[in-house]
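Ticket #4471: structure export looks truncated?
Reporter: QA, pipeline team
Priority: medium

Steps to reproduce: submit the single chain below to the structure queue and open the exported record.
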Amino acid sequence: MSHSKPRTLPWYVPDGLVDDYCEIARSGGDLRMLKTLKILRSILVNAGIIGITLSALFLTNADATITTVLGIVTLGLYNGIEVADYAALAAAFAEVRSQQTTNRDDN
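Actual output as written to the record:
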């Protein structure tokens, strides 16, 4: 695949993932629906991690320090992955939109 200009993506955005999302959009996929599903998934997973951590703290005799640290580290790791995935989706959305605009201007 050739680009009209090289991508300037942040270091945390996987270039291959942007290519995959661009291919999904070109083959008729709906990136807006994918974005909505990713946000919903993120909310549910975050609520689940928080719920499990709180239930471990209040319903069992778990050590509060270890449980809290593990909950925060898990949230941080998961949300770091989600940010990279969401940034790749946003970059692909912008790239597909700019290519569509360029194609309209050429016609």
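Status: closed, not a bug. The export was complete when the record was re-opened. Leaving a note from the reviewer for reference: The chain has three helices and no strands.
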